[in-house]
Write a structure and sequence with these properties.
- The protein is an alpha+beta fold.
- It contains five helices and seven strands, in the order βαααββββαββα.
- A hairpin with a 5-residue loop joins β3 and β4.
- It starts with 16 loop residues before the first strand and ends with a helix.
Length: about 160
């Protein structure tokens, strides 16, 4: 669903927008970050105990990678975003829910990032840099590329309006 198609609720606030379905696999793959370190740990443990070290490496990678994929597929449904007059909101999680709110007045600049797998699926990552320390950036990965560009443009226009005031 595109930004232009978002339907406001009774209070005039746009609905939460899910990530596009074609982003599901990339989202799940992005959750497998512990596969290599746990594979190396398995390699070392198996080596210490005199077992075939390659089996430990492979087992660690397969178990951690499989768990990461499973977790990513489960988490995918519970990520959504919303743009309203106050700014950008991102909601993540089911059991432990987090909602990140980026008021338009705090936005410093915006970046779009598209890796090769994202370009193939017409996806993009929006990075919203906010006022504060060097680690104050909010990232929303695997958005529809058109939505990401529209979000960047709308938030960017708002920054320009605030600078003019």
């Amino acid at each position: 669903m595109n930004i232009d198609e978002t339907m406001p609720d009774a209070a005039g606030v746009p609905d939460w927008q899910p990530l596009p379905e074609r982003a599901r696999l990339l989202f799940a793959i992005s959750r497998t970050g512990l596969a290599i370190p746990l594979g190396v740990a398995g390699f070392v443990l198996f080596r210490v105990f005199g077992l075939p070290a390659f089996a430990g490496l492979l087992g660690g990678i397969v178990l951690a990678g499989g768990f990461g994929l499973w977790l990513g597929f489960r988490q995918f449904r519970h990520v959504a975003w919303r743009l309203d007059a106050d700014g950008l909101a991102i909601r993540r999680g089911r059991l432990y829910q987090r909602e990140t709110r980026v008021p338009v007045t705090r936005v410093q600049h915006l970046d779009l990032k598209r890796g090769p797998w994202q370009r193939r699926r017409n996806l993009a990552t929006l990075i919203v840099h906010t006022a504060g320390t060097r680690h104050s950036a909010v990232t929303l990965a695997h958005l529809d590329a058109d939505d990401a560009e529209r979000l960047r443009d709308v938030l960017g226009r708002q920054i320009d309006r605030d600078d003019d005031d």
